[in-house]
Amino acid sequence: MAGATMVLKITDDITLILERSSVLADELLFVTSGKDEHHVEKVDTYFIQKDIYHDTHRQSSVMVRRVEGALQVEGILGSELRIKPLLQAPRSLDGQIAHKVYEV
């Protein structure tokens, strides 16, 4: 996942050509205000954005994380489908996490 693109086969009919998404500025300022003071905090968005990918052709946007050597994919697969990891399901023989693709 270190590169900017990846290919992810979801089903026999759905293969995503994913590019890393850049949806936020590199830093965000969060301001909280109280009666007598306000606090400004800079937040580095790298850790938020590093796992967000999109496939423009399939109109998909997913978060892809590697957890204990296995991929977890969660997000939107076009206008009618979603994907999420089934964390309570047993893993495959090679340690992969099961996922559910469902209609909305």
TrEMBL record:
Q: What is the lineage of its organism?
A: Eukaryota, Metazoa, Ecdysozoa, Arthropoda, Chelicerata
Q: What is this protein called?
A: Reprolysin
Which superkingdom, per the lineage?
Answer: Eukaryota
Q: From which organism does this entry originate?
A: Rhipicephalus zambeziensis
